[in-house]
Design brief:
Layout: H1 2-25, H2 32-52, H3 59-83
Helix pairs in contact: 1-2, 2-3
């Protein structure tokens, strides 16, 4: 469970840092690397669940769903930025 939380925290910090850097550079860098980090975190959550044959009281499934939602929002943000 600690690795799940650490992965989510790492992805959030990385997203904030990349967004700040892109704003400073005056151009939009996209969220491709953040989406890859989210994919890696999802894979780790799935591996933890498979290894323990449990869902951590439903929290792992919820975290995975939220990570997928975050990835979709980053994609929507990228599409918005590209067209506006």
């Amino acid at each position: 469970m600690k690795s799940i939380v650490a992965g989510v925290v790492f992805a959030s910090i990385a997203l904030t840092a990349v967004t700040a850097m892109a704003q400073q550079m005056g151009r939009f860098a996209g969220f491709e690397s953040e989406q890859h980090m989210i994919d890696d975190t999802i894979n780790r959550v799935e591996a933890q669940r498979r290894a323990g044959h449990e869902d951590f009281g439903g929290h792992a499934s919820k975290a995975e769903a939220l990570l997928r939602q975050a990835k979709a929002e980053l994609d929507a943000a990228t599409q918005y930025r590209m067209h506006h």
